[in-house]
TrEMBL record:
The keyword Plastid does not apply. One of its GO terms (biological process) is protein stabilization. Residues 84-164 form the BAG domain. It comes from Erpetoichthys calabaricus. Transmembrane segments: none annotated. Keywords: Coiled coil. This is BCL2 associated athanogene 2. Residues 14-41 form a coiled coil. One of its GO terms (molecular function) is protein-folding chaperone binding.
Amino acid sequence: DTGKGARVIDTLQVEALRDTATAMEQEKENLLEQIQSLQTSQEMRTISDGEREELTLTASRLLGRTLTVNISVETIRSPQQQDALSKATAIIDEIVGQVLDNLEGARKHLQALHAACISDAPPGPVDQKFQTIVISCALEDQKKIKRRIETLMRNVENSGKTIRITDNYKIDAQKLCAN
């Protein structure tokens, strides 16, 4: 039946298109993360003022250009899946709001949320409530939630390194002043 064959082809093409667009979304997220990581890297502190200014301008330009790219793959959700996504997003947003006040607590909470998103044996405690919410989300949303948490974990880890480096500079400066 040619109608059935056309439907199969259409389905395959649509899925390929969605997969390509999703990969492009992820590429954009990765580029934004790399640019932001460059802007806050330790190397920015060790280069000359002129190089730093040039690198900052280039990074800002790249960030602006990357942000002009809009790729959107809409997920079809039931009302229950939409509700679960809203709850999961609110939980993650709440932790993001706590990062500045309690970096270590936020890091541990993000790890528990991440453990709730992985199927193999997690390395640490699992946030059971969050896991139940995530399981109620659409599969595409589950993947996006996991990626967002992974990105946040990297950002928290990098900011922790930056804070430690800054603290070490302060300690070194205090030692120099004391001598």
